[in-house]
Amino acid sequence: HNPLRGRLTRNLIYSTKPDKAELTESPKQLALSFTESLEPSFSKAELKNADGHIIPAGKPALDPKDKATLIVPVSTTLDKGQYEVDWTALSVDGHKTQGKYTFTVK
């Protein structure tokens, strides 16, 4: 429905919603696209609310059509407020990178 994609940083390349995006509804998933294929067991994204509490999310998995995109299901409807996504990714060639971005549900 409303995939939220990561912000441009080193290897993270695609963003349908820029950092500090304002969404009108809770996203159903987080989708982070990178320049290189990922090692799924060493790549993750953690969703936190404004108080820093971790919001439970589904198990991250690679997009079956694009091994450079990590999909994280958002298993709960997010309340209005600001959220932060902290991510870590390991590419198949061994490069590790990490970063974060924020968004707000209005």
Instruction: Give the beta-strand count.
Output: 10
N- to C-terminal distance: 16 Å
Percent strand: over 45%
* Number of helices in the DSSP assignment: 0
Query: Any low-confidence stretches, pLDDT <50, length ≥5?
Result: 1-10
Q: Which percent bin holds the helix content?
A: under 10%
Overall outline: elongated
Largest sheet: 5 strands, mixed
Order of helices and strands: EEEEEEEEEE
Helix/strand class: mainly beta
Radius of gyration: 13 Å
Oligomer: single chain
- Calculate the mean pLDDT score and round it: 84
Key terms:
five-stranded mixed beta sheet, elongated
Structural summary, described in words:
With 106 residues, the chain is an all-beta fold. The chain has no helices and ten strands. The protein is elongated.
